[in-house]
Design goal:
- Among the domains are: 22-79, Arc Repressor Mutant, subunit A (Orthogonal Bundle), CATH 1.10.10; 82-115.
- The chain has helices spanning 24-43, 49-56, 60-68, 97-123, and strands spanning 4-7, 14-17, 81-82, 89-90.
- It is mostly helical and 141 residues long.
- The longest helix has 27 residues, at 97-123.
- The relative contact order is 0.06.
- The strands form two sheets. It has a two-stranded antiparallel ribbon. The protein has a two-stranded antiparallel ribbon with strand order 3-4.
- The structure holds zinc ion (2 copies).
- Residues 83, 85-86, 88, 95-96, 98-99 line the site of one zinc ion (ZN).
- One zinc ion (ZN) is lined by residues 8, 10-11, 13, 22-23, 25-26.
Length: 141
């Protein structure tokens, strides 16, 4: 018995993990599904991901993975899926370059803000004890 036993993330069955991330049954199913997807795209070049999902029953993530792996380029079809933010066609990741840059900039801005706030807080003396004014009047039981 080589290989560790693992629960299949798709059906939960135990299987011997030998460089695979799912059990042989699911792997087989996925291969069939990939075949269906390729066949569908071959017949309908230019089909969009949601359409393929609907027509083949394949999971969107499977199709996206196939796009990233260049499975459609292999059959001479350029496939893309929409950026999750703006809908621009992309072939890798979740967001287009533009949205990635935007998020990076936003992140940087919030980080800078947080750093500034931290610096401000550091220079200000802690007002924890001195702000008990008005408080403590109604601490009767
Ligand atoms: Zn499985
Ligand atoms: Zn985008």
């Amino acid at each position: 018995m080589a290989g560790k036993l693992k629960n299949c993330p798709y059906c939960g069955k135990l299987y011997a993990e030998i460089g695979r991330k799912m059990c042989p049954d699911c792997l087989e199913k996925e291969r069939e599904m990939e075949g269906d997807v390729v066949a569908y795209v071959r017949e309908h070049p230019g089909a969009k991901v949601p359409e393929i999902v609907e027509e083949t029953g394949a999971h969107e993530n499977l199709i996206k993975r196939m796009i990233r792996e260049g499975r459609f380029e292999q059959i001479g079809i350029k496939m893309s899926y929409p950026c999750e933010k703006c809908g621009a066609p992309i072939v890798t990741g979740k967001l287009c370059q533009k949205c990635q840059d935007e998020i990076k900039n936003e992140l940087q801005a919030t980080q800078e803000k947080a750093m500034k706030a931290k610096a401000m807080a550091a220079t200000k003396p802690k007002a924890a004890k001195s702000s008990s004014r008005g408080q403590g009047m109604h601490t009767k039981f």
